[in-house]
UniProtKB/TrEMBL annotation:
This is Hydroxysteroid dehydrogenase-like 1. Its main location: mitochondrion. The keyword Oxidoreductase applies. Keywords: Mitochondrion, NADP, Oxidoreductase. InterPro entries: 17-beta-HSD3-like, NAD(P)-bd_dom_sf, Sc_DH/Rdtase_CS, SDR_fam. One of its GO terms (molecular function) is oxidoreductase activity.
Length: 331
């Protein structure tokens, strides 16, 4: 008993001295929990406001909000075509820009007949450096351009290592994915600033949220558009201009034909029409969004992954895709 009593006294004294630290840790834990709950609630509200509420309360008048005409680059297939159709569905006149005159004529005629809006088109190959821009500038002169969608882009034929890319591919990535956006913005932004309204949508990519090996140059070019959009927003938001970085993941389009896994419609891989319907609804609400609530889940997870995990998984997955594509080519 003599030994037990001193041990009990010692334990009681240690407990008293530690009680302050236990209480401090409890306060820190409670504060952390409260912050996380508030953050979760805010993020949930923001997601509902962006992806659900616009579908419930009805569509905004894009013509009144921004202007009569929209310019869409890369608009004869995929996201560009679907986005142009979605804008036309809401009463906006459309100017299509792409390199195939036959496709432009067909899409222009289809949109005009289906949605009863005015359409026009400009034949332009953005891979030709400075060559296409004088004709584009002349075509857009004196038009009430309210919305610009920089969608045109070139993608890898299949995932590959940097040294396997041709010099032509490297030049195209810069001219088509980067230079075109700069020049198109330069043409329409002064008019928007003068009338103090307008919207610019730069179609980036989910691959830009973390370094993505095997799509290195493509991801880097799309990261440029993301950065450009966010910086321009701070420059021109006070002038009434809405600038959005649209960062979709895989969509079932011709650009994703390098793998059957990512080219077929599924839960996380929508059709271009489904994606465009959601993306247009985010105009005026978010300056940086995936445009589609299922892609927003993927983007949130991707941003919080350690970089090495993202890169390791991308390298593993895209190497597998590359191997399958090359095997099919050899057959």
């Amino acid at each position: 008993m003599a030994a037990v009593e001193p041990f009990y006294l010692l334990y009681r004294e240690i407990g008293r001295s530690c009680s302050f630290y236990v209480e401090a840790l409890a306060i820190v834990g409670a504060w952390y929990t409260i912050r996380k709950c508030i953050s979760l609630g805010f993020n949930t509200y923001r997601a509902l406001r962006l992806h659900l509420i616009p579908k419930l309360v009805g569509e905004i008048d894009l013509v009144k909000q921004y202007g009569k005409w929209a310019v869409v680059t890369g608009s004869t297939d995929g996201i560009g075509k679907a986005y142009a159709e979605e804008l036309a569905k809401r009463g906006v006149n459309i100017i299509l820009i792409s390199r195939s005159k036959e496709k432009l004529e067909a899409v222009s005629r289809s949109i005009a007949e289906t949605y009863k809006v005015e359409t026009d088109f400009v034949v332009a190959d953005f891979s030709k450096g400075r060559e296409p821009y004088p004709a584009i500038k002349e075509a857009l002169k004196d038009r009430d351009i309210g919305i610009l969608v920089n969608n045109v882009g070139v993608f890898y034929h299949y995932p590959d290592y940097f040294t396997n890319l041709s010099e032509d591919m490297l030049w195209d990535m810069v001219n088509v994915n980067i230079v075109s956006a700069n020049m198109m913005i330069r043409f329409v932004l002064p008019g928007m600033a003068e009338k103090k309204k307008g919207a610019i949508v730069n179609v980036s990519s989910g691959s830009s949220c973390q370094p993505t090996p095997m799509f290195t140059v493509y991801g880097a070019s799309k990261a440029y558009l993301d950065y450009l959009s966010r910086a321009l927003h701070y420059e021109y938001a006070s002038k009434g201009i809405f600038i959005q970085s649209l960062t979709p993941f895989f969509i079932a389009t011709k650009m994703a034909v390098c793998s059957s896994i990512i080219s077929k419609r599924s839960f996380f891989v929508p059709s271009a029409e489904e994606y465009a319907s959601h993306a247009v609804s985010t105009l005026g609400l978010s300056t940086r969004t995936t445009g589609y609530w299922k892609h927003a889940i993927k983007f949130a997870l991707a941003e919080h992954l350690p970089e090495w995990i993202w890169a390791w998984f991308a390298l593993y997955f895209l190497r597998t895709v590359r191997k399958k594509v090359l095997t099919c080519k050899m057959k």
